Amino acid sequence: MDRLQIAIEKARAKRGSRNSAAQIGPEHAAAGGDPWLSLTPIEIKRPMLERNRIIALSGGPGVAPYDHLRTRILQQARQHDWRRIALVSPHSACGKSTTAVNLAFSFGRQSDVRTLVLDLDLRRPRLAGILAQQSEFSMPDVLERRVPFSSLGMRYGDNLAFGFTMERVPNSAELLQSQQTSDVLSEIEAAYKPDICLYDMPPMMASDDTFGFLKNVDCVLMLAEAEKTPVAQIDIAERQLAELTNVMGIVLNKCNYADGLYGYDYGYE
Ligand SMILES: Nc1ncnc2c1ncn2[C@@H]1O[C@H](COP(=O)(O)OP(=O)(O)OP(=O)(O)O)[C@@H](O)[C@H]1O
Ligand SMILES: [Mg+2]
Questions:
Q1: Atom of ligand 1 nearest to the CA of 206
Q2: Does ligand 1 lie within 6 Å of residue 233's CB atom?
Q3: Domain assignments of the chain as residue spans, ordered by start
């Protein structure tokens, strides 16, 4: 059996156990009051955002595809009682991290929804870079219990928070499929009570990180790259994912021909 197959087998065996009662750990005990408000506020540098294709901070016609995706995600999440959503792709550069941040801001404009976005691409973390942020700690510090999430999490407004990863770690596959990671994620969820958790993952083909982690999620949103990702690869990836979790949908990213579909710029605001 290759590594991937072993990871799939392990994840299958462990699936089901993740819905056991969420543990209330140090995250909760330390919080007191609304724990979101004790997270460090983010200062957004707008010129950097545009350079990194982050457009969803404010609404408007150009943002419609992300807002549309947000609403579809929210509908499905509410319908199925899903909260934890991993952004995955068969190969690299399909746009997971860019989409995660745009979706984050799109969710952030929905004031009745609390959204937590964690950078779990521990091989090539990007979210802090895209948002031009620095963080003293990283997600592995939280997952390995060196610091609580309150020391890492950064918030934009009072209903959107990020957990950044600043540098790659060598043991990412083992860390992401450890029981401790499952426990810590449950503790964070119990303390912060997000409506939606988005996890930015590494590409499926690059490692077994994503497969090992999927026991922790309710569903995946798969991104593919228009004119680059072969249909057969999407098909195989979807089947592999469906063995382990729910496939919420497939987003064909970087479509050039979509202009006009969302171009309601002739009178709608
Ligand atoms: N909708 C889009 N249209 C055009 N370019 C895009 C789009 N989304 C992302 N990109 C660009 O594609 C590149 C890869 O994007 P991103 O880093 O978000 O992908 P990724 O799937 O997270 O990559 P990795 O697998 O390496 O983590 C970036 O240069 C980004 O700006
Ligand atoms: Mg990425």
A1: 25
A2: no
A3: 3-253
226-237: pLDDT as tens digits: 999 999 999 999
Q: 19 CA distance to ligand 1 centroid (A)?
A: 32
pLDDT tens digit sequence for 48-99: 899 999 999 998 889 999 999 999 999 999 999 999 999 999 999 999 999 9
Q: pTM surpassing 0.85?
A: yes
| Residue 87 CA to ligand 1 centre (angstroms) | 12
Ligand 1 atom nearest to CA at 223: 21
Is 138:166 a contact under the CB 8 Å cutoff? yes
User: What are the phi and psi torsion angles at 219 (to 5°)?
Assistant: -165, 170
Q: Which atom of ligand 1 is nearest to the CA of 52?
A: 31
CA dist., res. 61 & res. 59, Å (int) = 7
Radius of gyration (Cα) for the chain, nearest Å?
A: 18
Pick the CATH number of 3-253 from 3.40.50.300, 3.30.43.10, 3.90.1150.10, 3.40.50.150: 3.40.50.300
